[in-house]
């Protein structure tokens, strides 16, 4: 059972800070030092590595099976190297005893400074000292502390001769980067605790630093530029072992007050209520002349400082309020003394500068106090406040100096109502907190408001702070809501002149934390779009990384162990999975997960996708990212394997809910084992299996691109000679997906590959695989109008499938054969094949395959002249909509075609629009056509039609032939282009060639009709008549209800070729459906163009109406129709129309 270590009657104590800590903590939240235990039996202090008291032998813990934290982690650390200049020459001259005294003094000085700032000495090497900041507890201040330590060390060494008589100068180099850290070594003093390039970089920087100087890396500079003053320009250094120059910066001094996380340009969003509360507290303090203690609490980055600054502006702008406003900050990790925040306030009030000499400082302090105190008190209190301003103090009685500080601050408030802002109370010593509470309590009727800001971790050590005084006001800052966060992010992006395209993604990343938003936008502004990769990868700003890492380091061992497993598991978490991954009791793991929820790291999901398991997720994705990046690769790989194994075990047969997650874990494990140089055979096999399962799962929900990516991954991890049968099946699935997702690419290379694959399957005796390959080849040839090839492949597939068990692939073969016969207008063959596919799909429970076959069946009936098929097709569409089936796209497209055929152009357009938005619609292939060009034709916009035709017809991939089904458009481009003055092209010749080569009746109708109109307009009436005669002969062989694509063109050609009128009259007379198009064509063929104009106008085909007007103008010389032709010709730059109108 996993449980948190709990101390029985013991306390956790930080010897450095001398403050108690929570029993569950292992490191001090203020300085990062390991916590000692105070025995509950004898009160002896015991080192952190012991579980029994070394004085009395009593047990310190009562844990059962506490999960241990990993020994090694990847950490972002700051490494400091310091080396004495001239040490080698000095050592040559000195006696060994003198040299040893020099070394001891130097090492002691370095160790004292490093520890003062929370660093760990890693090793001493001759005259060099290496230290690391960020272990065992990482914080956002590590770089700042390292540079402060380097500067302080230089001051310490410059200020005294070593061993009393040897003045020495040192060089310091500091680098920030990732390293593998041995946490046990960190806890035991630091020897050999980390490995990584950051160590060599720090050492190399040290060799280039000037004597007495501190030289830091570019990353260190970036994380500390606001709190450390640097030289104006960086250095470009050639470091040994580095492939390119390295940027380095020379540190000069600490900035007294580090800037806050956001500047004045950062808008205050979502904090109106909190601001009103604080403003009311200030007004009440001033009006009632009473002291108040107010706190603002929030996690790091929630905008505490920003809120306080906005409060200052509100107070400053209020003409009714006269308030003295002073600010002090508690500094972290030894950067200041216990009362450093008070010192900052006193110096600010007295205008004392750090560069002032003691006399000037004393004078400034005396003048400031004289304004608010009786003359008799000024001298005494100036002496007692002197230490806060940097002056030496005198011996005092206990409590005397704190009382003097209280008197001085209360005097300021009596003189003018005063607000004292103390920021970052979580860094304050308990003595400072007691002083503030006592100050307000002593204030009584003084208009003094003490406003403190802190993070929630203060309450781990000082749980009573919110109730330190009766009536104390605490304002808590929560995460911003999504809408508020997006508004903030958008504003920040706009301020940086960055497109707001990234706003939604940054809103998700930053999770309601304003500081994260500021830092991410700043990072994008500095580094450009590369900081946000298109594939979903993202950098984490160093400041954000430090904050999150600190939260993780303050967890106990059990919490960190569970968090590590959760980070590997992914976005969705289940107690059973984590328990299985860690081989721990699930009840104990569930308890740890609840603690992580209380710590606001995890949240409960709304529903669970795993039966019997509660589902959780990370409150903030960045916490998961930082935790995951810390894990060594071997640990990650092992946890990924265990996560995949658990998810496979809980997956229900026939369902693919977790297939994608399993694949992710398997491929991660494979990548990690490859990077470690391990044997990858087992991981590769597991990854292949998982990726193929994920591909099938993605294909099942019509996510073709995702499925294609999974099959590519599986094949890349598959040795060519390993499991050849299974590999061929995977290759075929990959080609099928490529055909659906990227048909032009498939036609270029894939057809040949699938044909070779079918041959290999035939040779291996894989009849099922061969049949599936033949089906895919048949469908591919069908889509590029190769009738005979398509029929051969599909016939072979049906023959192979005949003796094989029924499955989805057999259903596909019958369905595509039915579709082929439909496109041949062989309704006698199409109906039996479609019904066979429908019955087979129904027996197998294949819903989409069944409706696919039904679409073919009903379309066949309509082509045969059965109008009731439209009602049945409507019902199929309703089924597809209700069940979300991708065949909806094809069903809508077919019904749109039939609605056009019936003369309902608006209804057809609505159906086409819906068809374009169908989820997974690319699985349901439709014959290639240009909808834009078709709409332009009906709208009478020939300029748009020609543009769309060029884009569509001339864009086809080499060898694809995927535009050959739209011979209607190719024919229209030919004759409309001629009327608009374009030179004659090859469109008609190609159309006739494709029609005869393909053998499809539908294509022959289009080629004959549009070819006839093109020749008639060109004056070749004999050629036009011959093509119309071919069309009439074809009609007698294969009449069809689908006439819209070609009948209007044939009718227009007849208007210019009277000799063809009898044959065309027979065609319209024997039409299977007397649609509005047929009636209009009948009028033209009968020599009644005026009636045809009316009929085409009623349908809504402007192009056909204009041509009919042309024929009326030619036949009758009617000015009304001629004016219409002139207008149409002018709009479309079709001068040839006017010439035709004048010719009779």
From TrEMBL:
GO terms for cellular component: cytoplasm. The keyword ATP-binding applies. Keywords: ATP-binding, Nucleotide-binding. One of its GO terms (biological process) is intracellular signal transduction. PROSITE patterns: GUANYLATE_CYCLASE_2. Gene3D superfamilies: Nucleotide cyclase (3.30.70.1230), P-loop containing nucleotide triphosphate hydrolases (3.40.50.300), Tetratricopeptide repeat domain (1.25.40.10). The keyword DNA repair does not apply. Residues 78-206 form the Guanylate cyclase domain. It holds the Pfam family AAA_16. GO terms for molecular function: adenylate cyclase activity; ATP binding. SMART domains: CYCc (SM00044). InterPro entries: A/G_cyclase, AAA_16, DZR, Nucleotide_cyclase, P-loop_NTPase, TPR-like_helical_dom_sf. It comes from Phytohabitans suffuscus. This is Guanylate cyclase domain-containing protein.
